[in-house]
Amino acid sequence: MSDSLKREAAARAVALVEPGMRLGLGTGSTARHFVALLGERVRQGLDVVGVPTSEATRRQAEDEGIRLTTLEETPQLDLTVDGADEFDDRLRLVKGGGGALLREKIVAASSTRMVVIADSSKRVERLGRFPLPVEVVRFGLASTRTAVADVASRFGAQGSVTLRHAEEEPFVTDEGHFILDIAFGVIAEPEAMAAALVAIPGVVEHGLFIGLCQTAFLATPDGILTLTNNDA
Ligand SMILES: O=C(CO)[C@H](O)[C@H](O)COP(=O)(O)O
Q: Which one of the listed residues 64, 104, 135, 205 is annotated catalytic?
């Protein structure tokens, strides 16, 4: 998708921001537009505070002059705006392509409202096209990986479980963990599979965001499509 479409989706989300709001600031190339546009409004006098979902977003928000806070200081947020790697029509999301899924999920769960901004290529009929990221502690990696692979195959994964790398080295998250990517194909039972994954010792979190997102602004060549999920 072109960058200008991503920016349009981000602009729709920025329009939701009101003075005094406590914001969750997402991670990725689409969320980056949101932070940039928010920065423009802050420089025009808008007073908000934000909790960044990654060190990359923290650096960008600081450069933009956005006042930052933490969940320790501000445990309840009004609105989180973030990207997604894929989502279905019930606004169940897969996130973590950028490796920030743990902080992203904690921030989203601390928000009254989560809005996703994405392009139409991210919309899927059934989740699983994008490999599912699973954040794991480094200790016991081989055992955890075997347990994750067992769950993945029980729930119909068509591909393998891969340790994510950055260049030659394993990718390390902002919280100091590794990421396993599960090539599913189709995730037939997202809720049950999510429960099975978090039951594995060593698994910190997975990239399925279920019941967290209420609204998606979807950039299409014909304009912005709004999807809503009133159950979240
Ligand atoms: O989950 C994420 C990072 O962990 C991102 O939100 C996701 O990867 C989407 O990124 P982009 O907007 O660049 O497509």
A: 104
